[in-house]
Amino acid sequence: MNEGLLKAGDRALCISTKLGQEVLALKEVGVDKAIGIDRLSSPPLVIEGDMHNLPFDDNSFDFEFSSAFGTASFPTIFASEVRRTLKPGGILVLHLAQEPQTANYAADELGKGYPILKYFKGFEVVHMRTVTAFSFDREIVLRKSGVQGNREVGKGKCTSLESKRKILRYAEPLIMEEPLKPWITLRRNVEKFKYLPNLIDISKFQNHVYIDVGARSYRSSIGNWFMKKYPKQNQKFTIYAVEADKSFAPDYSKRKNVRFLPFAAWLKNESLVFGDAENRTVEGEIGMGRIQSRSAVENSGNNMLSSREFQTVQGFDFAEWLSKVVSLDDFVVLKIDIEGTEFDILPRLLETGAICLVDELFLECHYNRRQRTSTVRTSKFSRTYDECFSLFQALRNSGVLVHQWY
């Protein structure tokens, strides 16, 4: 408070504070309107909530503090929630560990040249310093720009965000608790979907577009689900099938109504590898598996996984491509299957604002689910159900009608 960054009458939020020590400290120096949030509540100082989906209105706080950014599952979403709830001119204080340890982002990685601003766009660095009272954490203080702007998509704006949020009132509820039998629960959940064309008139849109990322064969979802079951209000849809496995190309060559893109949706334009040696059924086959960066495979240090065991594919910046192919005047339906490092595609859509172009989203989020024949969890995916749920919540909080696909 001596530095003029916080005043007694300010509204303050402490993010991911288990017992509320930080909240209590603020109240003791006169900041009575301080509150904390964590996955479990600790009344009266801490309420229940998710750092990726803060249960507060826009521009609610003058001051926010967190020591959890370094371990956030989705740092881009964390940053977007802070940006949304902090008032213009408001102060954000982050404490980061000097050493990575269990953290995803360490102070040394984020401090040099202020790369942290790539997450907190519209902020400026007030100061950075070592705080010896907190295990030699690095303290980073940021100030949000005093001008309140709207999210941009290229030269367009998300002017319809509020109307989209109103539609979400009619959406089927998300499944909060991890299903004991997800292969049954999630499949049944499809029957509860509140499709957007059943809620609004889509004839007013200029174009109608369906994009299937990780489409596999035509009958996997385009033919058997979208063409047969999705309500189209007699509108003709332009269909894109994005599938990195080129073995499906002959199937799509027969489908004149589908534009087949034999590439991998990614964060940027770069060479990737596709495959999983552990899933091979015949020696010498590539095996169905996950998209990975070629450099990551070559530098993994695992002698059992040579880049020769993978098929090279071309990755493309999906957010950039989406912004060029469709506009806010189009009705866009996106179905996407994400696993492993592809998790970052959705946060990037949020970060760039390209998510505003998507009217309805069907998302399959892979996690370390229990196997059908035992309680042992699969080791193929490292994410948890809670992390998937946080992503769904963040998307809905951004005004996106997202459904939990199976």
From TrEMBL:
PANTHER family: METHYLTRANSFERASE (PTHR44843), METHYLTRANSFERASE TYPE 11 DOMAIN-CONTAINING PROTEIN (PTHR44843:SF14)
MF (Gene Ontology): S-adenosylmethionine-dependent methyltransferase activity
Annotated ranges, domain DUF7870: 172-270, 309-406
SUPFAM superfamilies, sorted: S-adenosyl-L-methionine-dependent methyltransferases
Top-level division of the source organism's lineage: Eukaryota
Lineage, broadest ranks: Eukaryota, Viridiplantae, Streptophyta, Embryophyta, Tracheophyta
CDD domains: AdoMet_MTases
Protein's name in the database: Methyltransferase FkbM domain-containing protein
Stretches assigned to the Methyltransferase type domain: 43-94
